[in-house]
Amino acid sequence: MTENFDELAAAWPRILDGIWITLGLTGGGAALAMIVAVTLGLMARQPNVLVRGTARTIIEFFRGTSLVVQIMWLFYVLPLLGVDLDAMVVGILALGLNYGAYSAEVVRGSINSVQSGQWEASTALSMSSFHRMRRIIFPQAWALMIPSLTNLLIHLLKGSAIVSFIAIQDLTFHVDQLRLDTSTWFAYGLVGLGIYFIIAYILTLVMNTLEVRAKHRLGRGESLREMLSLKPPRTTAGTGEPA
């Protein structure tokens, strides 16, 4: 066992490089996925059949085809068409488009879940469609969609391991290299599993923080400072329930 930890210490600089690459893929893919999700989610709600149909086609295409095939197509087929992309860009594109398609349904469903009274009130105030969405509807939908987006973000993190197919030396690649020098159990069962869990847990905490902040801004919960304080939660007079 001591030999395994010695090998880990020797391989740690390479594993750390792999962690940064995995984080870059996750962050870049998540940012692109959010842009794709909001764009397609809003397009899928449009009354125009052409706009709505285009959004549905893109969503179903990327949800209905394998992420492995998508990343291989971007890396191996696009150069044949004269478009040669860096492997890291290909990884971010594949992750962003694939998970963006899934997230688009979350965006669309969350917007549709906003109470009809909010839509009617903003219409009565003669707000433009853009301002109604930006000031009234989307902030409420954002609080609703965060839990589902958190799940997809964790899936994206784990899905980033697929980039090893196109020779990107991410965390999984270096863990597999460690396996050659140690036991399979140590490399995958302890090092790989542990690092991915820690990253996923940190991302979950970040997303939970965003959810608390979003709900507080809508007046539906405690602020982050109140939640982290040692003081007992505020209660509504006469009920004993949290305010």
> What about the largest sheet?
none
How many whole angstroms does the radius of gyration measure? 22 Å
Q: What is the average per-residue confidence, as pLDDT, rounded to a whole number?
A: 87
Strand percentage lies at: under 5%
Assign the CATH class: Mainly Alpha
> How far is the first residue's CA from the last residue's CA?
53 Å
| Helical segment count | 9
Shape: flat
Helix content: over 70%
- Could you tell me the CATH topology label: MetI-like fold
Give the strand tally.
0
Q: What's the domain count?
A: 1
CATH homologous superfamily heading: MetI-like
Order of helices and strands: HHHHHHHHH
CATH architecture: Orthogonal Bundle
Q: Flag low-confidence runs.
A: none
Summing up helix and strand content along with how strands pair, one would put the structural category as mainly alpha
What does this structure look like?
- This protein has 243 residues and is mainly α.
- The chain has one domain (2-228): MetI-like (MetI-like fold), CATH 1.10.3720.
- Helix content is 77%, strand content 0%.
- Helix 6 (129-159) packs antiparallel against helix 8.
- It is flat, with a radius of gyration of 22 Å.
- The termini are far apart.
